[in-house]
Write a structure and sequence with these properties.
Layout: H1 6-14, H2 32-49, H3 55-68, H4 77-92, H5 96-99, E1 103-108, H6 110-115, E2 121-122, E3 127-129, E4 134-138
């Protein structure tokens, strides 16, 4: 049993990642939902480090964090870069005090997501910043 944040568990276990050839479709990087979740964690960390950095620098920093802390192998960078860019676009709309205090991701029901009045959102990837400065992901397949 692990008690703590999911991102802490991934960071701890990523040290033991091995690059093996899996059957296509079995890699974590083959699932868009997993890529989005990883992108959110990496982007949150990037904004915590330097909330005033440009969008371009946030994307570069988040990609490095995804590789080094969240077990995304560099050969899959092309799969996660899109999600990182989309998450950075959402967060960059928010005021600087929100950017540096984000948490998450949390998963919310379709009804909770749809009823949110957040102006910081991207409905294409079902991602928003809620009133408690959490990145909320609406449940659905991407």
């Amino acid at each position: 049993m692990f008690e703590g944040e999911y991102s802490s568990l991934i960071i701890c276990l990523s040290k033991y990642l091995k690059d093996v050839d899996l059957i296509p479709g079995l890699a974590r990087e083959d699932d868009p939902v997993n890529l989005l979740q990883t992108a959110v964690m990496a982007v949150i960390d990037s904004y915590a480090i330097d909330p005033g950095a440009s969008k371009e620098l946030q994307c570069v920093s988040a990609l490095a964090l995804a590789n080094n802390q969240y077990a995304v192998l560099p050969k899959f960078n092309d799969r996660i870069e899109h999600f990182i860019s989309k998450v950075v676009d959402v967060i960059d709309q928010a005021p600087s005090q929100v950017k540096s205090s984000l948490t998450g991701p949390i998963w919310v029901t379709k009804n909770t997501y749809d009823s949110s009045e957040s102006i910081y959102r991207d409905d294409a990837i079902r991602t928003l910043i809620d009133s408690k400065n959490r990145i909320a992901l609406g449940v659905r397949k991407l």
